[in-house]
Amino acid sequence: MDFKKSELSSQRLLRERFFSSFLKFTEEVRSIPKENKIAIWKSKNTESYLGLCFALSILGDRDQIRVIDLSEANRKILQKNYEIRFAGEVSPEDLERIRKASEKNEYLSEEMKMNLIKKWQFFSESKDILRIWKDDQVHSIPEDYYDDFIVAYAKKIGAEKDFYTATKLIGSVLYHSANDLSESHTSCDAFFDYRIRILIKRGVFEAQDIFKPDLKYKIKLIS
Question: Matching InterPro entries, A to Z (predicted)?
C-alpha cells in the first residue's frame, strides 16, 4: 500500500464514521415522542451550535423545547465566573443542578425556532469545509487554517531535530489551539491527522512508520 492509498483510506474511514454517527443521531431525534418536553444543551462551540440548529430542523413542529446554555447556567445557577465550552467540563452533580433549575426556563418561541432552522438551512447548503466558533459566532475558515499552527507546535515539541509521534503533536495542538487562537473548537484528532498527512505529502514533514495505526507514526520537520 502506498502513501496515497493510505491517505484515501484515512479519508474514507473518517467519512464513514461521520455518516454513521450522523444517521444514528438523526434517528434518535426523530424517535422522540411529540408529547415529550425537550431540553437541548448548548455550549460555546461550533458543533454544539450547529447541532442545535440541526435538531430544531427536525423538531420544528414541537412546542415544548427548551435550550440550556451551559455558560449562562454556569454563571447564573452555579455562580461560577468562567466560560464553559463543553459539557465535559461540568461535573455530573452540577449538570443535575442545572437541569433542575432550567425546568423553569421558557420554551423557545416560534420566531427563535425559525431563525435557528434558517441558520441550519444556510449552513447545510454552504460549501465550506471547516468552521470554528469565535466571538460567539460560527465562522467559516479555509481547510489549511491550522497548518501554520501545526508547524509552530511541531517546532515547540522539538520536531525540527527528532522524530515524534503524531499523537504527541496532535495532542499539543488540540490542547493549545483554543487558548492561543482565542477560539473554541472540538476538531477531532482525525482532522489534524489528515492535515499532517497533507503536510507530509507537500514536503513539510518526513514520516516514519506511516502505516502504523492509532497515530503511532512519527514525523519530523524537514529543514
Answer: DUF1835, DUF3658
Query: Using CA atoms, how far apart are residues 121 and 119, in angstroms rounded to an integer?
Result: 5
Whether pTM exceeds 0.85? no
CB 216 within 8 A of CB 167: yes
The helix/strand count (H/E) of the chain reads as 8, 7
- Start-end of H helices in 157-213: 166-180, 189-201
For residue 42, what is its C-alpha cell?
Answer: 448548548
13-64 per-position pLDDT tens digit: 777 887 888 888 888 888 999 899 999 999 888 888 998 999 999 998 898 9
- Domains observed in the chain: 32-126 (no CATH), 142-221 (1.10.10)
